[in-house]
Write a structure and sequence with these properties.
By secondary structure, the chain is mainly beta. About 0% of the residues lie in helices and about 55% in strands. The chain is globular.
């Protein structure tokens, strides 16, 4: 079983930066960040794989966001730079705990990110 706790959300002006952190307990093979605006579907933001370290990003955040793993703290962080008002959403981290499968079977509770113009 994997438990996930996000932190680091908040209010920032456009052009600013925030760093989200997802503390994970348990064994996972891939971790992802997603975001959701009320009334919209949850959308993929970024992901990282445990064994290969491969990272993937949504086109909308490439070059601005960086996903990384902090081994010492057992967290997966999302560094968000050059934030835009359209980045405003609730951000969720998710984990895949089943090797050889795709998708995510554990989710955090979410953290609000608000970018003011």
């Amino acid at each position: 079983q994997v438990q996930l706790v996000e932190s680091g959300g908040g209010l920032v002006q456009a052009g600013g930066s925030l760093r989200l952190s997802c503390a994970a307990s348990g064994r996972w093979y891939a971790m992802g960040w997603f975001r959701q605006v009320p009334g919209n579907e949850r959308e993929f933001v970024a992901s990282i794989r445990l064994n290969s370290g491969r990272t993937d990003y949504a086109d909308s955040v490439k070059g601005r966001f960086t996903i990384s793993r902090n081994n010492a703290k057992n967290t997966v962080d999302l560094q968000m730079n050059t934030l835009k008002p359209e980045d405003t959403a609730v951000y969720y981290c998710a984990a895949n705990s089943e090797v050889g499968t795709t998708g995510y079977n554990y989710w955090g509770q979410g953290t609000q990110v608000t970018v003011s113009s």
